[in-house]
Specification:
single chain, alpha/beta, 11 helices, 7 strands, 40% helix, 24% strand, globular, binds benzoic acid
Length: 250
């Protein structure tokens, strides 16, 4: 199922700033050193890429969204429009870094192979992505509301949320040595309501409907989620689970 997700940097900044704000642990795991050449895989709007640059790294961001590549360039960071499943770099990076992007990539072995090719010997692949069970409450409500409309909701699911065993097996099969890997539940307070999150991240589901039915679909999903994800003050929390890992090419 190809994703029909469209990234709008302004909406992303409004509804998804937490994605880069909560990126500190994976940057810490990367432990970037000044002068290192680093590829930011799925750089989004470039906010974390710019942070790596401020830390003295020679960094390039790649993303599959033209709008996000342009947003990254506006921060003064080199960025390229690249399909992560066909990276095309050759032994030129000390590290490949990725935050909140790999779960959008449905052919993980192609991605891992491209990362392997992009790294120098001894280079590291350090990333955080949605892990097994991520947003399962939200996903269930999205699928159920499509099924009720006679549409196969499961087929609209754009995400790959692997287990520790799945992703580490893929990395080691390609030759990586695992330094660490863990599944980390991280309930995530949202800046807006569930509908704002759905509009930002769950377009693949609503895209199966005619445009004039999408608002009602999202409202129905939000009401299904309210008892589970919204507190008495009206604050929404998404049931995120992260998969965070560090692996080395050695
Ligand atoms: C995540 O960053 O974990 C995520 C993003 C979009 C949808 C689901 C999960």
């Amino acid at each position: 199922m190809p994703t029909t997700q469209i990234w709008d940097p302004e909406r992303y900044a409004r509804n998804a700033r937490f994605v880069s704000d909560l990126g500190a642990p994976v940057v810490e795991l990367l432990a970037p050193r000044a002068g290192e050449r680093i590829l930011d895989l799925g750089c989004g709007d470039g906010v974390l890429t710019a942070k790596l640059s401020e830390m003295g790294c020679d960094v390039i961001g790649v993303d599959a969204s033209v709008a996000q590549v342009e947003a990254t360039k506006r921060l003064g960071i080199e960025a390229r429009l690249v399909d992560a499943e066909h990276l095309g770099f050759n032994a030129e990076f000390d590290a490949v870094f990725s935050n909140a992007a790999l779960h959008w990539m449905r052919h993980p072995d192609e991605v891992i192979d491209g990362v392997w090719q992009a790294l120098r010997d001894g280079g590291r692949f350090v990333a955080e992505m949605g892990g097994y069970g991520c947003v399962q409450t939200i996903k269930h409500a999205l699928i159920q509301a499509l099924n009720r409309r006679g549409i196969d909701g499961q087929a609209a699911d754009p995400w790959y949320f692997p287990t520790v065993e799945d992703y580490s097996a893929r990395l080691t099969a390609r030759g990586f040595s695992m330094n660490s890997i863990a599944l980390i539940p991280r309930p995530t307070p949202l800046p807006g309501d569930a509908t704002a999150w759905l509009e930002t991240f769950a377009q693949s589901f609503s895209a199966t409907l005619p445009p004039n039915e999408r608002a009602a679909y999202q409202a129905e999903v939000q009401e299904a989620l309210r008892p589970k994800l919204c507190d008495s003050q009206g604050k929404w929390t998404a049931d995120y689970v992260r998969l965070r890992f560090s692996a080395s090419k050695k």
